[in-house]
Design a protein that fits this description.
Layout (H helix, E strand, L loop, with lengths): L4 H12 L9 H12 L18 H7 L5 H49 L7 H46 L18 H13 L1
């Protein structure tokens, strides 16, 4: 599932419908590499901190077409993409749980309605069970909202990074109505995949 702001909005829209409630250049890369490797990179999903990365050798090997600013932006774009992939998997699983829980509530409501139509039945336990299932659904809804917000923030960050890199590679291109496709830039794919593979581990 390729995440976008539109998809995230649709997920939130679905969640709002609830069930019824009960009643680099190579000549300069080595010299500048220390700038890019000076600070450790954080896991995009908010986990452990990566060791110092990348090495000057790897920058020379994979990102020699770019200067340190460009390589740093490509690194952050790749890290953001990994974060988006992680969020996509988490959202898919959580959305499935949410839909499943709505089905559970429908069944419990049907059982309660059957009891209401049967004279002498004790409704207290069934009503308590329905209330508990609604609380579970509300909890899943809140988790989804929080995860959607985090994913939205990462997507916006990725878009901002790509815009910065595009402007750096082709100053004034957006102002002139031109859109530089990063995938068409010589050396971008090799450099991007190097960082993406690292952060995907």
């Amino acid at each position: 599932m390729k995440l976008s702001i539109t998809i995230l909005s649709s997920i939130l829209s679905v969640c709002s419908v609830t069930t019824a409630s009960p009643v680099y250049p190579s000549s300069t890369m080595s010299a500048e590499a220390s700038t890019l490797t000076a600070s450790p990179s954080a896991n995009p999903a908010g986990g452990d901190v990566y060791p110092v990365f990348p090495s000057a050798y790897n920058l020379e090997k994979y990102c020699d077409s770019f200067d340190t600013t460009e390589a740093s932006l490509i690194k952050e774009i790749a890290k953001a993409h990994v974060g988006i992939d992680v969020m996509s998997t988490q959202l898919e699983g959580l959305h499935y749980q949410y839909d499943f829980q709505k089905g559970v509530i429908i069944k419990v409501e049907q059982q309660l309605e059957t009891l209401r139509q049967t004279p002498g039945q004790e409704l207290g336990a069934a009503e308590a069970r329905l209330k508990m299932q609604h609380e579970v659904l509300d909890g899943l809804k809140n988790e989804l909202k929080e995860l959607v917000k985090k994913a939205s923030d990462i997507i916006k960050k990725e878009e901002s990074l790509e815009k910065k890199l595009t402007e750096h590679l082709s100053p004034g291109s957006s102002a002139n109505g031109g859109i530089l496709k990063l995938k068409t830039v010589s050396g971008y794919k090799k450099c991007y995949e190097f960082f993406f593979d690292h952060f995907s581990q």
